[in-house]
Amino acid sequence: MESSAEFEGYTVEAMGDYYVEPDKKTGELSKPFMATATAEEVRELERLTDAVWARVRAGAWDTSAFERSQLYEQAREQQEGCRNKNEKAAVMQQAYEQWLVETAPGC
Fold this sequence. Notes:
Low-confidence stretches: none
Helix content: 40-55%
Radius of gyration: 17 Å
Number of strands: 2
Mean pLDDT: 89
Number of helices: 3
Shape: globular
Largest sheet: 2 strands, antiparallel
């Protein structure tokens, strides 16, 4: 965002997640989820965005090799110590994102 021509000179200081679809039960809009990010978290997101964009440009849609990777196996082992599905999903998501960055075409 900061490196785009449209927003040159701006600095991202916070992030928000807005949902415009109303709650199915109440019909009310959700309150925005706001978060701040460290410089390292921003760099990680930039690396992931670059890796995904490289896959899009290369048409590299098949990511099934992840399930045969060492990162996948390590994540499966780490999941054994997790207490619930959300923790397990977070472990696998982190491994998948790391794999995407490490295996991005042209990187």
